[in-house]
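User: Run a structure prediction on this.
Assistant: Running it now.
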Amino acid sequence: MRIQNLTFAYGSDKIFDNFSVTIPSKKICTVVGGSGCGKSTLLKLIASLIQKQSGEIILDETEMGPVSYLFQEPRLLPTENVYSNVELVLKSSIKDDAERKEKVFYYLKRVGLFQDRTKYPSELSGGMKQRVAIARAFAYPSKLILMDEPMQGLDIKSRQVVLGLFADLWEKDPRTTLFVTHDLRDAITRGSSILALGDPNNPVDFIDVDSMRPLNDEKYGVLETRLLDAILI
């Protein structure tokens, strides 16, 4: 994905001003930065939920098509059970009921919710709801996954479980992913690259984490310090 000369403002507040960056395809790029620096706005612009004022967002051919969007809240339909919340995103692409059912069952088993498929969102914990959202995101035939801090409201244990399930699914079906997070550990350990925002004109920093793997304590410490310095500028 290439973002070229992107400009966007909320009134007189410039978020991006001729901003450019290249994000590797079929990799996870974690996005960090202070509040109000444009992390969520960038995802919304990529997904065309809001319209850019100028510039281009050029997708690789492996990224064109539907987008899976994971928000801070799972955004499940309260009147539908776990099974139906996943099935709904497949109805337009898979017309055969048996084939659709097989796919839903596959993803619910992968996230450990097969036995809970008849439960409704009101009966689920926060972590379980996000697992449904992740199953739905991967079941949907998307080429691009956008994650806007979907783990923010989870306790430490649930967060690690959900992140682990996401990583397992992604390894078997890699798609270009932008993952907004405030957690620098997640940014470093989950991302193939890290995009630090804060300057409307250019990334404050863009780090190719893959080139530094395997990460030992010293490398991790260097990356953490570098990110803190970037974010606190």
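The domain at 1-63+181-233 is CATH 3.40.50.300 (Rossmann fold).
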